[in-house]
Amino acid sequence: xxxxxxxxxQFPALASPTTFLDNAGGSQLPACVIDAMAAYLATSYAQxxxxxxxxxAAAAAVHDAHVLMARWANAADExxxxxxxxxxxxxxxxxDAYLDxxxxxxxxxxIVSIHGHESNIGPxxxxxxxxxxxxxxxxxxxxxxxxxxxxxxxxxxxxKLVVFPHVSNILGSVVDVRTIADMAHAAGSRLVVDGVAFxxxxxxxxxxxxxxxxxxxxxxxxxxxxAVLVGSAEAMAEVTGxxxxxxxxxxxxxxxxxxxxxxxxxxxMVAVQPYLRMLAGAERSRNAAMIxxxxxxxALGVMxxxxxxxxxxxxxxxxxIPGLKIxxxxxxxxDRVPTVSFVMPDKSSRAVATAANANGLAMxxxxxxxxxxxxxxxxxxDVEDGVMRISLVHYNTAAEVDAxxxxxxxxxx
Length: 413
Fold this sequence. Notes:
By secondary structure, the protein is an alpha/beta fold. It is built from 15 helices and 13 strands. It has helices at 4-8, 31-43, 53-73, 87-101, 122-125, 146-149, 177-186, 206-209, 233-237, 263-270, 273-280, 293-319, 349-358, 371-377, 398-412, and strands at 19-20, 81-84, 109-113, 133-137, 159-165, 190-194, 213-217, 227-231, 325-326, 339-343, 361-362, 364-366, 387-391. The strands form 3 sheets. The protein has a 7-stranded mixed β-sheet with strand order 2-8-7-6-5-3-4. A 4-stranded antiparallel β-sheet has the order 9-10-13-12. It has a two-stranded parallel sheet with strand order 1-11. Helix 8 (206-209) links the parallel strand 6 (190-194) and strand 7 (213-217). The longest helix has 27 residues, at 293-319. The two termini are 40 Å apart.
């Protein structure tokens, strides 16, 4: 495992006096990604489809990004990785695709968990206006075996889709996707999983998870502002993407990439490979044009290992602050990620976070686009003031955790 100093040296932003504690909103970028995007814009900023060098380089960046993102998710084929500007845009497109496909098999129900980001709730709730039945999955808690068990009574012959987050961006708890997948598939339903809050902390394996659709944001995992939606062959065949009529329905992923993809974002996605190799302790093979799946898994494993100690330090420290209430599991371990939300008695979340920011501690407050969940967790409270959230990743340090704990302890009085 590389030293933390070696890891942090790869991130130009970490030279700032600001302590980044809002990584769930977007991670910092290693220099290799920043440099590659700048180089692409300087030397290969051209339309694809031509045979001249710049166009060929642009096409290679787009192709390689699809290959890498499919491998990152352990998708069955590179054509199953759909790239887009954001998770919100991709999920809205997917919901519209199901709307366009119509109700032709007697299945007209979507079960939607409220525990996630609105990007994976609102587009599905909207289908109710067009005759679909929408069942909100509101059960708490989402940790452990209790959450999957609450689904069984909701499934029926009408259920077309089960939609939920792999990790709540408020609670930080990891959901057992495979158990839910087995239940949904046994009932003849498809699974739509929001992996945005999971992807920065663990390796994605859509085949092991049993997910029919799985999405995440690359800008929260060391990459540019873009997103990925991976579909299974069976699920993709059920819907038609929104791209132009003259493109065949099975022209994956292009049929789903309306207007094309950001070429410079593709260059940035591909350029993360040297950093992953460094984390994994792997040298680039002369015969391997693309990073191996095993190297990706090892790199994410190193990230998870580094984060476990930070998670324990943060949660145990927060529990020692009088009156502070953590919203989510207080047990640490692999079933949790270091995204921790909390409230303090008689303290405005806005006021505390703003004071922390003034002290160079970049934590945030609010409902973090999980309006429905925060409303449930804080009945009668100010949803926009919401909760305070500290979200760590592998490049954070114990000293940074101690600094924010000291600040919160002092603020609590």
